C-alpha cells in the first residue's frame, strides 16, 4: 500500500503554458500537447485527458517528462467533422496533492467540415476579415475559372494546425493576406508544418511581402524553405519606400510573358525585391527590380509575389463585388495550367485578353476627399476621361492624352469648391467606345 505523508505548507502542482491546439480539418490524427508543471516537491504522475463534445474527461494517457519541468503527450481523439475536442492536464506530486488545469474552462478545438469536399486548392488567409477582404477576390476567381477552393482563415481558427495543410487532397495552397506573421515560413528549416506538406509535392503560392520577411534584408541559405523550395538568395525589404506603382512580366515566361510589353499599375506604395539563387523572375518593376519569382524543387512548384497582386483589381471591400482585372485573371489561368490544375476554358480562354475597353467602378464610392479611377485599354489609343454633373455639364477634365494598352489607375481629387455633394458621372471615351460610371460625392 502506498502512503502519502501530508505537509501543511505544501501546495499542489502548478500547471502553466499548456499547448493551444488550433481548429483543424482533420481530427483523426496525433496531436501533441505539452505543459510546464512545477511543484515544491517532486512530480509523481502527469496525465493528458480528453473527451469529445463533453466537458468531462473520458480518455487519458500518461505524459512524458521532456526535462525537469516540461511534460508532453500525444493523443488521437478520432474526432469527426463538427466535433469539439476538450483536453486537460492533470498532475500529482509525491505527497499525493493533485491539480487539474482548466477544469472549469477546458482547452478545446473544433474539427471543421470541408465546405468544398472536391476542392484541390486551399486558400489560406492570414488577415483579419473584419478589416480586409482580399480573399473575396480569390473566391471570385474560383467561380470565374470553375476551380473549387477551400477557404481557411488562420486568425479566425486560433492559428495554423498542421492537419489543415498536410492533406493529400490539396494540389496547391495559396497563402494570402498582409498580416505580419511571427515566423516567416521561408526561414523555417525542419518545421513540422510546411516542410512535410511541400515534401509531398503540394504546390505553394505566397502572395504579399509581409509573409516572406519582417521588413529588413533577409538572406536564405540551403536548408531554409525560401532557398530550397523558392530558390531565393535574398529579399531586400523596402516597404517603407513609396517608389513602387507598376510592374511588367518577363518576355517568354510561361506565367507572365503575356504582360511583358506594358507596365500594369498597382494601387500599392511599396514592395520588396528578390535576388534569386535558382528561381526564375516573373515580375519586375519599372526600375527592373525583381518582385516576383517561380521555382520548382523536385515535384513541388512555388511562386512568390512580394506585392499584393489583388491590387490589380477593383474592389472596395464594402460596396461592390470584385471586378477582376484581365491581367490578374490571365496570370492565374497560366499559373493553374502550369500546376496541372484544369481551368474551364469555356468560361475563360487562357490565350486572349478582353478586346474591349473596360471602365471599372471607382473606389471608394461614395467618396469624400478623393477616389481611385481605373480603366483597361486593349490597345494604345486616344483617351478622354471626364466627370459630369447630373445636368450634363463637364465639371472636371481628368485625362486627354494618348495612352498605352493595359490597366491605368489614378486618384481623382475634386478640387473645385463648386462641387457639392451629389451624383456625378465618370465618362471614358477611347476611340468609338464610350463608357459611363455613376459616382457619389459626400462632403
Taking all residues together, what is the mean pLDDT?
84
Low-pLDDT regions: 348-352
| CATH topology (level 3) name of the largest domain | Rossmann fold
Strand order of the largest sheet: 11-10-12-13-21-20-19-16-17
Percent range for β-strand residues: 35-45%
As a whole number of angstroms, the C-alpha radius of gyration is 27 Å
Biggest sheet descriptor: 9 strands, mixed
Distance between the termini: 84 Å
Would you mind describing this structure in some detail?
The chain has 443 residues and is mainly beta. It has 3 domains: 14-110, Immunoglobulin-like (Sandwich); 121-338, Class I glutamine amidotransferase (GATase) domain (Rossmann fold, 3-Layer(aba) Sandwich); 358-441, Macroglobulin (MG2) domain (Immunoglobulin-like, Sandwich), CATH 2.60.40. The protein contains 5 helices and 28 strands. The chain has helices spanning 135-145, 162-165, 194-199, 225-228, 326-338; strands spanning 14-16, 31-38, 43-52, 59-62, 64-65, 70-75, 84-93, 98-101, 107-110, 121-125, 149-153, 172-176, 203-207, 218-219, 232-236, 246-249, 264-265, 273-276, 280-285, 290-297, 300-305, 358-359, 371-377, 381-388, 394-403, 406-412, 422-430, 433-441. The strands form 6 sheets. It has a 9-stranded mixed β-sheet with strand order 11-10-12-13-21-20-19-16-17, covered by helices on one side. Strands 3, 4, 7, 8 and 9 form a 5-stranded antiparallel β-sheet that branches. The chain has a 4-stranded antiparallel β-sheet with strand order 1-2-6-5, with no helix packed on it. The longest helix is centred in the C-terminal third of the chain and has 13 residues, at 326-338.
Amino acid at each position: 500500500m502506498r502512503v502519502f505523508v501530508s505537509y501543511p505548507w505544501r501546495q499542489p502542482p502548478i500547471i502553466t503554458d499548456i499547448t493551444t491546439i488550433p481548429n483543424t480539418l482533420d481530427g483523426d490524427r496525433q496531436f501533441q500537447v505539452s505543459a510546464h508543471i512545477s511543484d515544491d516537491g517532486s512530480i509523481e504522475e502527469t496525465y493528458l485527458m480528453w473527451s469529445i463534445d463533453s466537458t468531462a474527461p473520458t480518455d487519458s494517457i500518461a505524459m512524458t517528462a521532456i526535462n525537469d519541468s516540461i511534460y508532453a503527450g500525444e493523443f488521437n481523439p478520432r474526432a469527426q467533422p463538427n466535433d469539439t475536442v476538450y483536453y486537460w492536464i492533470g498532475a500529482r506530486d509525491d505527497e499525493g496533492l493533485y491539480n487539474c488545469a482548466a477544469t472549469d474552462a477546458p482547452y478545446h478545438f473544433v474539427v471543421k467540415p470541408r465546405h468544398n469536399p472536391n476542392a484541390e486548392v486551399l486558400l489560406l488567409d492570414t488577415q483579419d476579415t473584419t478589416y480586409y477582404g482580399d480573399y473575396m477576390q480569390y473566391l471570385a476567381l474560383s467561380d470565374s475559372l470553375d476551380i473549387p477552393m477551400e477557404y481557411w482563415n488562420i486568425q479566425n481558427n486560433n492559428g495554423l494546425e498542421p492537419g489543415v495543410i498536410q492533406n493529400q487532397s490539396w494540389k496547391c495552397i495559396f497563402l494570402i493576406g498582409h498580416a505580419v506573421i511571427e515566423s516567416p515560413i521561408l526561414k523555417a528549416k525542419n518545421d513540422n508544418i510546411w516542410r512535410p506538406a511541400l515534401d509531398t509535392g503540394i504546390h505553394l503560392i505566397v502572395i504579399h511581402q509581409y509573409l516572406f520577411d519582417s521588413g529588413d534584408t533577409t538572406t536564405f541559405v540551403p536548408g531554409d524553405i525560401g532557398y530550397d523550395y523558392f530558390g531565393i538568395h535574398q529579399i531586400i525589404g523596402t516597404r517603407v519606400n513609396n517608389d513602387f506603382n507598376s510592374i511588367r512580366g518577363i518576355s517568354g515566361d510561361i506565367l507572365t510573358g503575356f504582360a511583358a510589353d506594358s507596365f500594369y499599375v498597382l494601387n500599392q506604395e511599396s514592395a520588396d525585391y528578390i535576388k534569386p539563387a535558382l528561381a526564375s523572375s516573373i515580375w519586375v518593376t519599372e526600375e527592373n527590380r525583381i518582385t516576383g519569382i517561380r521555382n520548382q524543387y523536385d515535384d513541388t512548384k512555388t511562386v512568390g509575389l512580394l506585392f499584393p497582386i489583388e491590387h490589380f483589381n477593383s474592389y472596395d471591400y464594402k460596396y461592390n463585388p470584385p471586378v477582376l482585372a484581365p491581367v490578374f485573371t490571365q496570370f492565374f489561368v497560366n499559373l493553374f495550367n502550369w500546376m496541372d490544375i484544369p481551368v474551364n476554358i469555356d468560361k475563360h480562354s487562357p490565350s486572349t485578353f478582353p478586346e474591349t475597353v473596360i471602365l471599372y467602378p471607382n473606389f471608394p464610392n461614395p467618396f469624400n476627399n478623393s477616389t481611385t479611377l481605373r480603366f483597361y485599354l486593349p490597345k494604345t489609343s486616344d483617351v478622354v476621361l471626364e466627370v459630369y454633373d447630373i445636368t450634363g455639364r463637364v465639371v472636371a477634365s481628368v485625362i486627354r492624352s494618348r495612352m498605352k494598352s493595359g490597366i491605368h489607375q489614378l486618384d481623382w481629387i475634386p478640387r473645385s469648391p463648386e462641387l457639392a455633394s451629389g451624383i456625378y458621372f465618370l465618362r471614358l471615351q477611347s476611340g468609338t467606345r464610350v463608357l459611363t460610371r455613376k459616382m457619389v460625392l459626400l462632403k
